[in-house]
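name: query_chain
kind: protein
chains: 1
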Amino acid sequence: MRKLTYFAVFEPNGSGGYGVYFPDILGCTSYGESYDKAQRMAQEALGLHLLEMEKDGDEIPSPTTDPHGLAIEPETNESYVISSVTVFPDLIKDRKEHLGIA
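structure:
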């Protein structure tokens, strides 16, 4: 089974929530009202984003293997946290098909 892992940047917003973005996957963002929720939402966002990229025939970027090599956006809050997020695209695809979601 295919497994993909990317680093995500979790940026606290001051009220307990976290904005999330993936430096290797442009346009893939998420949010959670807590760090735990942000992790779950980031995993869902990454999986769905990668599926749509594959569906559109877009090339899936190789993940950065060293977090020190990430391109952190300059406006990112200095209290950010980097964490890896793993998805299994085939499981997500199967789940979407089972639910009848295009």
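note: The chain has a mean pLDDT of 89.
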